[in-house]
Write a structure and sequence with these properties.
mainly alpha
Length: about 250
């Protein structure tokens, strides 16, 4: 074999070893790592423009998201804190409200539920999803009255909002008032009939209440409406227990 070919194979082998080592070591989210690198390189070129336009906070916000996805908790929180500080200094209230919401997601991703609750309480105009998150965090702390209040606020704004009923039923279930949870879903089904998921959810609460016959009837009804109905996922559970960070 020629010397040139030996060198070529040797270089290829070394590069393969390097690539394997790179992929096998943290951070495991390589896409987020490269996004973080690009964000920082790009900022060097447009820093002055961003400062002039009042958008400097976006650089730190994006860094926070990429670092969180790389599982760098402390660095991520430092960056989002910096973004919030800049938005506060600029009196950029709409963006400040958004940043509180995004920091709450990062905190929940790292199981900091008290911090997430503190952030959500700072938001003046809550979305439906934020109402649900706030209610579930209050429930987790044992403040069931306030949790139910935020659930009811969802229903008051939209009498057919599945999120609100699921929220309220879960608060009742936490204090073992399963029959009340069933009643909440019965009200929803009266207002929005024919939804397989609603029957499936009510079935779970009937089972918890000891009504096995009712559980089986609701489950059958749900599958009659839609055979592939989801009986495992819960929007109330997924609201605060984050497997993935839903920020871009």
């Amino acid at each position: 074999m020629k010397l040139g070919n030996i060198i070529k194979y040797l270089v290829t082998f070394i590069l393969c070893l390097f690539l394997i080592g790179y992929l096998a070591n943290p951070p495991y989210n390589k896409i987020a790592q490269w996004q973080y690198i690009y964000n920082n390189l790009d900022f060097l070129k447009i820093k002055e423009k961003m400062i002039m336009e009042g958008n400097e906070y976006l650089f730190y916000r994006n860094n926070a998201v990429y670092l969180a996805k790389m599982n760098e908790k402390q660095d991520s929180l430092k960056e989002i804190d910096k973004a919030i500080e800049i938005a506060q200094n600029k009196s950029n209230e709409p963006q400040l409200q958004r940043l509180y919401s995004e920091r709450s997601k990062i905190r929940m991703y790292f199981d900091d539920y008290e911090g997430a609750l503190d952030d959500l309480l700072k938001i003046e105009h809550l979305t439906q999803d934020e109402h649900l998150k706030l209610a579930m965090l209050l429930k987790k702390q044992g403040d069931y009255k306030q949790a139910a209040n935020y659930c009811n606020q969802i229903i008051n704004k939209d009498i057919k909002a599945y999120v609100g009923y699921a929220c309220l039923a879960e608060v009742y279930a936490e204090i073992k008032k399963y029959n009340s949870s069933v009643m909440v879903y019965s009200l929803l089904i009266d207002r929005v009939p024919g939804k397989a998921k609603y029957y499936a959810d009510r079935a779970m609460y009937k089972k918890a209440a000891g009504d096995i016959e009712g559980y089986e009837a609701d489950l059958k009804k749900a599958k009659d409406i839609y055979p592939m109905v989801d009986t495992k996922t819960s929007i109330t559970n997924d609201a605060i227990y984050k497997k993935h960070l839903d920020l871009k």
